[in-house]
Amino acid sequence: MPRKLPFRVIHASGQDESYRASELNYHSPLTKGWQASRYCLYPQDIVLQLDQRCRLRKIQILSHQYLIATKIEFFVGDVPEDMSPNLENARYTRLGYVSLSDNEKTGFKARELKSVHVDAVGLYLKLNIHKNHINKYNIYNQVGIIAINVIGETLKGPSDFMDPEYYLDPDRKGQLDDLGLDTYNKPDYISPLDDLAFDMYQDPEIAGIIRKLEKKKQEAVLQERFDYAKRLKSAITELQKVGEKLGKYEVEKRQAVENEDYDKAKLKKVQMDEYRLQVYRDLNLADLLETTGSRHPQVIDLEPIRQATPPRLLELTPRSPIQRSPPRTPPPRTPYDERPLPALKSKDTPRELPSTPPPRTSYDERPLPVKPPAVPDEEPEPAETAVGITGEPEPLTEKDLREASAAIDVFGEQLVSKAYSKTWSYREDALLAVYKQMQDLPATAPKDEAKSMMRASIFLVKKAIDDKVYAVFKAGLHLLKMILTEYVPKHKIQKQDTVWAVERSMQNLLHKSGDTAVRNRDDAKNFVLEMARYPEVKPTNCVPHEAVKPMKNSVAPRLGQSRCEIVEMLYKDLGIKTNSGLNIDNMMQFCVAALSHHAGEVRDGSERIIKALYKEDRQAVKDYLPADDDKTRKITLYRQLFEYFDKVDGKPSKADVRKKRSDEETKKQAEIEALQKQLQSLKDMASGKQDAKTNQSKPSNKPVAKKPVDENLLKADKNKKKNEPPKKSKIINKKPTADDDDTSVYNMDNICIFCGERNESFIEEGLDLHYWKHCPMLKRCTNCKQVVEIATYTDHLLNECEAKNNYSKCNRCTEAIPKSEYDQHVSEKSCNAAKSSSNHCPLCHQNVSSGEDGWKNHLMGKDGCKQNPRRLLSLNKNPSTGGTSKNKPKATGKNKKTPR
């Protein structure tokens, strides 16, 4: 008869680190299954090796809900008889393939189970898995298989592969092992217990019991014990429901463990244990699982199955023969899920069945348990039993007795011995017992008793905080929180005792903040911050005082980093107010000590705190640091700090100053060369060396300069060669006429061709300096620093400037407006509209008389442009001139040019 065949995965072409192919070897509700590696190449191969040569009858594949392959091909492999049975010698035969749905209709929540009926013989089964279906959840293009099941028959040799009629021969009925009466005439019958769906949704322990009951049922049918077989059938039906429910609980428990919700996980474990035990009692498995003709129950050795919770051995005790009692009416029944949970029992407590089984009732309809009346002569249970402390831990050593003498006087040696036990569950239960006793202590208890109990509990809390087991550590934090938030105000503990409790526990918490486990570090740091906010602790300021105590350079880097993070969090939360416990003095003392630590992460944390404190009080912070000089700035750490201080103060850093000087020197050299070239160009044009075409063209650019240049630099470079062609400039070439009294005015030496000023110093450097700083007809461009004529400044910004792409022309005032302000400028319509018959000043935005004289009167006259800063300098030099210079002849005739 076909049955479930054991196998193991011996080859996989790829696998995700969290979902290995070995997961396919086991079936349970917690099986994660196999997943291909991210962005793998297809097809992927998986090879299964059976325990021995078998005849395969059925293959089942449970696919992932969204990591779905488009199709899976099946190959059966066998090894010739003359070769050794290994994977290299296998010869494969293709059986066919199955296609899988894309699962879009189910919202990618349901898993598809594919069952393929085959008839092949071999030792290996290979799956060829093709590329995945595309969906929004499968972002890494993976495929996944939750479980694989192989059903068939074991062949002991080649002759065992016979025709199915072999099983129909009545003479061979006695040779069939473990077969029920209904399977003799069904050689292809496959039990539902071998189906993949059974193992994937059943609790493994319940599944093992069901299989044993199924075997017992088949034996009962052969022995014609039909009443017993009927009871077994009913029990199997109910156990299947129970197994599915327990499987669901197991999944919920595993999810709670992954989320670190250990309270919920513990509750689920207790719920499963109680549910399982009650079902076993209700079904009376002692009678159902008898292995001999005797009615006495035997010990049931359940087959081990891989599971997160290890299989439990049902311990059955011998009892007297069954005594039938008259039928009675059962009380009202209440579902199990609505009954209250009993007190937590130790995991070591054996499961004992009652000596006389109760009447058979459905578990979900059983009555509520009734608390038995108290027996006067019965000795009451110890108080520890109520919170789950059972059993006897190892006795305390002499050293432990001396160390814990104060706690023993308060809580007793039995409880303290559990706190010192090597079993972590005992240590956790001891803290829970202390928690319970302190909560139950009435508020009217004597002050001395309450104080001594708190001091004894702090001793156990310190030990729990240093515990390596996370559950014990968390129990210690819960106990400390209860003491500081509930116990202290309830019993009105004095302030000095509260400070003592916080200071003692803070030492261990700060040490725990340097633990290797991330969650231990985070919980310790968060609890310190939380403890600083407690109403009974915050006024004492003991948490900040303990946190900012300077640490030694020998402190471990992880601990030092956590100390800095704790101080930083306290500073952000409490500030440096007068009543916060933090101030510049104690924090800077802590930070200065941390700055000398050998670990970089500790120094970085201290540096962050110092930078934050500098914004609070700059001078006080600098008082704790070395002097700001070149020697100190050679140290990288202090240089970075002082540069940050300069940035906060608005000062340029020394590196920026040096860079700026270097840039200025480079620019000065370039500017000097450019000015010399432009000066030579002006001389050439003034002497008439420029060709006629150049003289008649309209000038577009003026001498280029970017920075003011002093005379010493010009004199130093006055002999440089000028090889580049000169810039175009507005030159008015005049010929003398008879009306002129002095022909010397036509001498272009020592005269500015723009404003007409004559000066003996206007030779080379002097004239260049005049263009750059003093000429009222010129200005420097704010973008490219080129010296241009004011009359052509708008055209320069729109057509010639390096930043011309940043300007647009206003059609109303004809000025160049920055594009960032253009829309607002146009929409407001507040600009002064330009007139076609006049010029428009780009400085004061007023309309100016047309012609060159109009520009000169506006830019150089007494009542001229108020926005031209060079106008007043020109008037001070020539107070008698009203704007138009007498030193320069007026242009007439064809040679007169109007500025743009």
From TrEMBL:
Q: Please list the residue ranges that the record marks as compositionally biased, kind Polar residues.
A: 875-885
Biased amino acid composition, Low complexity: 317-326
Q: Where is the composition biased (Basic residues)?
A: 887-900
Subcellular compartments: Cell projection, Cilium; Cytoplasm, Cytoskeleton, Microtubule organizing center, Centrosome, Centriole; Cytoplasm, Cytoskeleton, Spindle pole
Asked if the keyword Repeat belongs to this entry, the reply reads yes
| PROSITE patterns named among the record's database cross-references | UVR (PS50151)
Keyword check for Cytoplasm:
yes
Endpoints of the signal sequence: none
Q: What residues does the UVR domain cover? A: 207-242
Q: Which residues cross the membrane?
A: none
Any single Pfam family the record assigns to this protein: CEP104_N
Q: Where is this region: Disordered?
A: 300-395, 682-740, 859-900
Q: What biological function has been recorded for the protein in this entry?
A: Required for ciliogenesis and for structural integrity at the ciliary tip.
Describe the protein's quaternary organization and the partners it interacts with: Interacts with CCP110 and CEP97. Interacts with ARMC9, TOGARAM1, CCDC66 and CSPP1.
Q: What is this protein called?
A: Centrosomal protein of 104 kDa
Organism in which the protein naturally occurs:
Mytilus edulis
